[in-house]
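ERR on first pass: missing label on line 2. Operator R.T. fixed the label and resubmitted. Corrected input:
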Amino acid sequence: MSISAQQRGIARCTECGKLSHLPDLGHKTTAACPRCNTELSFRKPQSLQRSWAYTIAATALMIPANILPILTVISFGQGDPDTIMSGVVKLWVADLQAIAVIVFIASIAVPVLKLLILVILMLVVQWQLPLSRQQCTILYRFIHFIGRWSMLDLFMISILVTLVHLGNIATVESGPAATAFAAVVVLTLFAANSFDPRLIWDLDND
Amino acid sequence: MAEPSHIPHEFTACPDCDLLLQTAQSDHTLEGRCPRCKAVLWHAAKHTDTVSFAAAISGLILFYPAMTLPILKLKMVGQHGSNSLLGGIYRMWVEQEQILAVLIMLCSLLAPLLHLLLTAVVCFSVRFNHYPSHFPLWIKYKCWMQSWNMLEVYAMGIIVAYVKMMHDGEVTVSAGTYCLSGLLLCVILCSQYFHEEQAWQHWEKNKPA
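pass 2 clean. output:
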């Protein structure tokens, strides 16, 4: 039988990884890690509430991020605003399939998958769903690894806006969706960071 | 403040599943994993502070040219355009996208700079056995900066922008890209070879009372 550190009254410091005995604390007292002075707790405080809040906010912002224009390429005075999806379609039609796939994965598949996985993980904890703990942990590591790649589109916009700044011949302008998309990326990063995977394993310990 | 009591070194708890484990670090294996969830619990440290110190210093030397030299150059109907990382942030700010400008500055300029700087300072302290009182804060900030450092994503962004503009005009790769590639290599070496647990143990042994 495996025993969790919490069952022995031992807390692992979130910053430096040192183990300490955490005595039963009253409401207003806190304990600090003897090595790095970070506040100690068995699990990330209010992990589920915070993750839910960030996830719901990110889901709401997905709508303006995908409907509003993100980029407008104007050459010789004319050009249509592109949304994220229409930009991908244009790349695909222009025989740049490889880049179209990369942009699709980074700016559409990753945010949607991330939000979906976060909701699944939180439901597993909340409703005690009998999903494999190992697989849930793999999903958690996957969203941690993949999350930063959504920034690709924003960096690309910053590069294009500066590079293509040729007055009347061609200019690139960013649209309102860029800010919404940036908010989605940052909020999903926060959501993944505030979720505590140990809550999944705690279900087996009770 | 309650005072937590001491726990022997050979015990560890898995960061991902909280399994309480007894670790036996042997010289034969390079890393130890949690038997339940396969999280990496520890990895062997060999010459690590030398490599990460060298990588941090090289990265800091490459930093200024990588930020200011032009990355891509565009030629369209006789007109020339170019961009640098710093120029990209400036243009976003000028075009009323201040929030985006700040986010891009954090992920591609501030975080890499502070990551390299703090790694260099921490390695320097460990090497010369001189620990300032803010040492734990520096390691914490270093980890935070490492997680916001997204230079590798920026490099992918350069490739996508290059391919996107390939048909519209003449795009050439410029000096900034080479400096940025070097900087990226230094950042990767820096984060791969830095041994956090070792730095913490040095601090614990030698911290000023």
